[in-house]
Write a structure and sequence with these properties.
Shape of chain A: globular
Order of helices and strands of chain B: HHHHH
Structural class of chain A: alpha+beta
Strand content of chain A: 5-15%
Number of helices of chain B: 5
Oligomer: heterodimer
Mean pLDDT of chain B: 85
Radius of gyration of chain A: 32 Å
Number of helices of chain A: 25
Structural class of chain B: mainly alpha
Low-confidence stretches of chain A: 17-30, 441-460
Distance between the termini of chain A: 101 Å
Helix content of chain A: 25-40%
Radius of gyration of chain B: 18 Å
Shape of chain B: globular
Largest sheet of chain B: none
Distance between the termini of chain B: 47 Å
Number of domains of chain B: 1
Number of strands of chain A: 18
Largest interface: A-B, 32 and 35 residues
């Protein structure tokens, strides 16, 4: 029939059919650009390794380049889509901000700097761009615990912030820098991407099969050695690298000095005769892959009590992290809380409520993954308006104080070292705070400018939820507009000369070794006596002297560091913030504590909600009855919070958590006191109610009998 | 076991408004009717002092409970804070006073003629006690680890409606007592 039509008609018909076909595909069946196996048994990956330019790698080539996951995996998987998911998109303007989460903590152990950072502008964190930390510096510092990309992606590395921080001027240098009218890149803004290249995305960091030989810590080590491009190869164990890139100078030229680059030696035995190599991977990341970056563990558990530690009840039941925190090809990982804004409408069904109670929003019914439906017998429903699920079911049971926790990224868990539990940064948990908790005031220019799209504002904000907390420690300047934190690298360069702390700020500041003359001053003629032979009185004398010297040493070093800062910033007052307090130079060359007005909210802690580990129902808060929480000294409200400061002997002020829970403490106290003797009331009340029934029934009987008698 | 969750959904605020209007209207009409048809019965001096005090305190407690609950619902939309505190405190007294009210004021076949001689007084006393038992009973049930969340929500709904009934019955009982004691009925 088509052939019998006139040519112009044929053309119109053909174009119409083609248009409809294209529209139909677009609307009803999105085109699949990549083939898929779709077998639940998975696909066995015998594939060719490819380098960054897409060429196949020959393992016996002496100059074989490192393999590129983008080119190797990207041939069959939509790399562009994947590399903009939740774990990669923090630096992107269009990324989800989400409710506050685990920050990247910029730690400089020796110089007392621990700053919570986030590009997502979570209130209480510092934006690295505003601190003039380069994307490359972020990639180098945190790339070891990132799956690659993100701040280290090629597009991100090109980003240059506006340089607005006050410029430090070396007082010994009289020369003015030549600017030629152009913005000068400050020295603290370091970008060595010419040496390292971009931070590659390593799919295997998450998708390796446990026991396959892939080592996440090898990945971390390679990033720290600035061997960015080599990290995927070495981490997978298919090759070794002969040197690191740390020694390459800033002016390194890849074209001219290519021979100085590290060299890869592939393990030829891992390759098949046709050059294919086996990628031992899993579609759904294993828990161990998640744990590498997301381990949060009590310090007491890590320092000897591991055998007493119970896993999350879901993990014990066989549920993997990725069963709830799942994602599609876009790698927009579900974070799993009520009110989450997610490209998929069904994300909410993976929250506690979604699985256990069902979700009206996504239309899912309760019982997903076999989740039992909780009855909460005897629990007044008002509690669901006041408490999140995790308040009663997650983390450690509230206790008198907030214990400290280690975190993979902040404390470099994975590295084989001795830990005593006091390592900075001091993160404490579980602090039961309202979900949208933030300090009462907000620093100028910080993160309060556009709260309209803050995800947290979209859901019940007053629910108490367990949080992790940390108090920032940093060097800054007190100006008319408040405290301006300094770039941590810049601060390090300036204060280290005064501090002379080499390894650990707190330990090194506190370290005092008595000289012979000092011992003699304390002990007299017995100053040569061995320590074990000292009397109690002598021990006390030595201790007293040590304490005095320590205080002098701390003051001396801190004063020196602050003076160094003030010499470089002559218009400002140099300050050091730690443990919720601020310190500046006093009039008598000593340290003075900043007043609350001077401090503003510069020392306020950053808190972010946590959800794991989930305890079984039989260990939930409230299982012991109302008085688990409703009594005067119940930890839910009375837990003592003591800011973690870094100065030795720093006396931070502890306070009851109810002071920052946004609750009316007086009302709370009256309310809790009403639960005293509640059991007795229940008994007598029930007796009274029973007697009332008896009276009513008897009156009824009397009336009925007199009615019948009539 | 306690599947009382499947109750008809009625907007409580609407029901409360309707009950309030109906009570005021009935009270006004009833007052006019009583005045128009006064019977000149003999006045009653009243019951013993314990009954009188119980009734006075019970009236105050019901007033506190009504204001702290319905007042809070009208003004705030829900019960929270000091309103809830006052309600909790009043509820404790309510349970024990209800026993006294049932004992002293429920009509028995033998105590006619008395201040129960008018049918409004008799039936409002019954309404007061029965609704009071349901109100206190649902509260106690909620305090025991027997009801799940859905059942507890239903119990709270029952508590609200029966509490509303207590207030309405209390108003009519008070009205009836006044009429009887003044010799109008």
């Amino acid at each position: 029939m088509f052939k019998t039509m006139l040519p112009p008609v044929r053309i119109v018909v053909a174009l119409s059919v083609a248009t409809l076909t294209i529209l139909g595909r677009t609307e009803f069946a999105p085109a699949q650009n990549y083939a898929t196996s779709d077998n639940q048994s998975g696909y066995v990956h015998w594939i060719e390794l490819r380098d960054a330019s897409g060429r196949t790698i020959a393992p016996d080539d002496d100059d074989a380049p490192p393999y590129s996951p983008q080119q190797t995996c990207g041939r069959c998987h939509d790399f562009n889509t994947i590399s903009h998911g939740w774990h990669f998109d923090a630096v992107e303007q269009s990324s989800r901000r989400g409710r506050p989460g685990q920050p990247w903590i910029w730690s400089d152990l020796a110089n007392g700097i621990h700053m919570p950072l986030s590009y997502r502008d979570w209130q209480g964190t510092f934006n690295p761009d505003k601190l003039e930390i380069s994307r490359w510096q972020m990639a180098e510092k945190f790339g070891g615990f990132l799956p690659g990309g993100g701040p280290g992606s090629a597009a991100s590395l090109e980003h240059r912030p506006e340089f607005k921080l006050p410029t430090w001027k070396d007082p010994k240098d009289d020369d003015e820098p030549e600017t030629d009218g152009e913005a000068v890149t400050p020295e603290h803004f370091v970008d060595l991407s010419n040496v390292t290249g971009e931070l590659p995305v390593d799919c295997m960091l998450c998708h390796h099969r446990p026991g396959s030989g892939y080592s996440p810590f090898a990945w971390t080590e390679q990033i720290e050695d600035r061997n960015f491009a080599y990290a995927p190869t070495v981490a997978m164990g298919i090759g070794t690298v002969d040197k690191n890139s740390l020694r390459l100078k800033d002016d390194f030229d890849r074209a001219e000095d290519a021979d100085k680059l590290p060299k890869i030696t592939y393990d030829a035995q891992r390759f098949r005769h046709d050059g294919m190599i086996f990628f031992d991977l899993v579609r759904k990341p294993s828990n161990d892959s998640c744990y590498y970056c997301h381990t949060n563990i009590s310090t007491d558990t890590a320092t000897g009590g591991r055998w007493l530690h119970d896993e999350d009840v879901h993990v014990r039941a066989g549920i993997a992290c990725a069963d709830c925190h799942r994602n599609g090809l876009d790698h927009e990982t579900v974070r799993g809380f009520v009110g989450e804004q997610h490209p998929s409408a069904s994300a909410e069904s993976f929250s506690c409520q979604g699985c256990h109670l069902g979700s009206d929003g996504s239309g899912t019914v309760a019982g997903r993954l076999g989740a039992p439906k909780p009855l909460h017998k005897g629990l007044p429903p008002l509690h669901f308006e006041k408490l999140s699920c995790t308040a009663c079911h997650s983390g450690k049971l509230p206790s008198d104080t907030l214990p400290r926790q280690f975190n993979s990224i902040a404390h470099r868990l994975g590295e084989h070292v001795r830990r005593n539990g006091d390592e900075a940064p001091g993160i404490v948990a579980s602090a039961l705070l309202p979900l949208d908790w933030h300090p009462p005031t907000t620093a100028e220019g910080d993160h309060s400018d556009d709260d309209s799209d803050v995800e947290a504002s979209g859901h019940p904000s007053a629910k108490l939820t367990p949080h992790r907390m940390m108090w920032p420690s940093y060097w800054g300047l007190l100006t008319d507009s408040g405290i301006q934190p300094l770039n941590p690298e810049q601060a390090r360069e300036i204060v280290r000369k005064g501090l002379r702390t080499k390894r650990d700020f707190t330990e090194d500041l506190a370290k005092v070794k008595l000289s012979s003359s000092q011992k003699k001053e304390a002990l007299g003629d017995r100053y040569r006596t061995k320590e074990e032979e000292w009397t109690e009185e002598e021990k006390a004398k030595v201790e007293s002297l040590t304490k005095k010297l320590r205080e002098e040493q701390i003051t001396e070093k801190m004063v020196k560091a602050l003076k160094e800062l003030e010499e470089g910033f002559p218009e400002s007052i140099a300050v050091y913030i730690t443990g919720g307090q601020g310190f500046a130079l006093g009039e008598a060359d000593d340290l003075r504590e900043l007043s609350a007005d001077e401090l503003g909210d510069a020392a306020e802690p950053y808190a972010w909600p946590m959800a794991h580990s989930v305890r079984p129902a039989s260990q939930s808060l409230g299982i012991g009855g109302c008085t688990d929480c409703h009594r005067t000294d119940a930890p839910l409200f009375a837990t003592q919070v003591r800011p973690v400061g870094l100065l030795p002997d720093q006396e931070t002020e502890a306070f009851a958590i109810s002071n920052i829970q946004g609750l009316d403490v007086e009302k709370l106290s009256i309310w809790n006191s009403m639960f005293d003797g509640r059991s007795v009331f229940k008994i007598f009340g029930l007796i009274a109610l029973g007697l009332t029934c008896v009276v009513a029934v008897s009156a009824c009987a009397v009336n009925l009998s007199s009615f019948w008698r009539r | 076991m306690f599947m009382i969750a499947e109750l008809p959904v009625v907007d409580f605020t609407q029901a409360m408004n309707a009950a309030g209007l109906a009570t005021v209207a009935l009270l006004g009409l009833g007052g006019l009717w009583v005045l128009a048809t006064r019977r000149g019965e003999h006045k009653i001096t009243g019951r013993n002092w314990l009954a009188k005090i119980s009734y006075l305190v019970f009236t105050i407690v019901v007033l506190v409970l009504a204001v702290s609950s319905f007042g809070a619902i009208v003004t705030e939309g829900h019960m929270l804070g000091y309103a809830l505190l006052a309600h909790m405190a009043g509820a404790g007294a309510f349970v024990f006073l209800l026993l006294a009210i049932a004992y002293f004021y429920l009509p028995r076949g033998t105590d006619i003629p008395s201040d129960n001689r008018w049918w409004v007084a008799r039936w409002s006393a019954w309404g007061l006690v029965v609704a009071g038992i349901v109100t206190a009973g649902t509260m106690f049930l909620s305090m025991l680890p027997v009801l799940g969340t859905q059942d507890m929500l239903a119990a709270i709904a029952v508590h609200r409606f029966s509490g509303l009934l207590v207030v309405v019955c209390m108003v009519f009982h008070f009205f009836a007592l006044c009429c009887v004691r003044l010799g109008l009925r």
